[in-house]
Design brief:
By secondary structure, the protein is mainly α. The protein has 2 domains: about 15-55, no CATH class; about 60-165, AhpD-like (Up-down Bundle). The chain is built from 9 helices and no strands.
């Protein structure tokens, strides 16, 4: 049972309605997470702006989705695991084996694997990574800017994981459950 109410886009007014209309035109739907975030237009707009900005970054959509899965597994967020598994496969074209490996912080490409491992390390250490942790991801070929973007992707996904775990958001994608307990 959800703990925070998802708004009905057809009955919403004001800034949330404007944001919902934009989401609807872009995605063809307003996912439950965003409908629930709409209770605070500031939260929804902040999420949308942060997500949009990172989408224009150097890491690309594929790595962004893989980081989202690694972080969601670390935070046991079934909503985000479900959403990003669906988005990764259906919209970004990532095969299911790669999606599943990302949840464990792994990838066949050593550079991507280093980013996923660093993302999980950020979560595990709550951002208090060591000089060696940063040196390892940079040695894999990431610039200072790209390392900053990995941190930002983790932060965005921690926001959505914590939000969905707090709200107990109804999952409106094919359900994927965390393996970690």
């Amino acid at each position: 049972m959800t703990r925070l109410q998802a708004l009905d886009p057809k009955e919403t007014t004001g800034r949330s309605k404007e944001l919902f209309d934009g989401i609807q035109s872009k995605l063809g739907m307003v996912p439950n997470m965003m409908r629930t975030m709409g209770n605070s237009p500031a939260v929804l707009e902040g999420y949308l702006n942060f997500s949009d900005a990172l989408g224009k970054g150097s890491l690309g959509g594929k790595l962004g989705e893989l980081i989202a899965l690694a972080v969601a597994e670390s935070n046991t967020c079934n909503y985000c695991l479900s959403a990003h598994s669906f988005i990764g496969e259906k919209l970004v074209g990532i095969d299911t084996t790669t999606l599943e490996m990302a949840r464990e912080g792994k990838n066949k490409d050593p550079k991507i694997a280093a980013a996923l491992f660093f993302a999980q390390t950020l979560v595990e250490k709550r951002g208090r990574v060591s000089a060696d942790d940063v040196a390892a991801v940079k040695a894999a070929g990431y610039t200072d800017g790209a390392v900053g973007e990995i941190v930002a992707h983790v932060a965005l996904n921690v926001l959505t994981n914590y939000f969905n775990n707090t709200a107990d958001t109804d999952i409106d994608f094919p359900v994927v459950e965390a393996q970690t307990v």
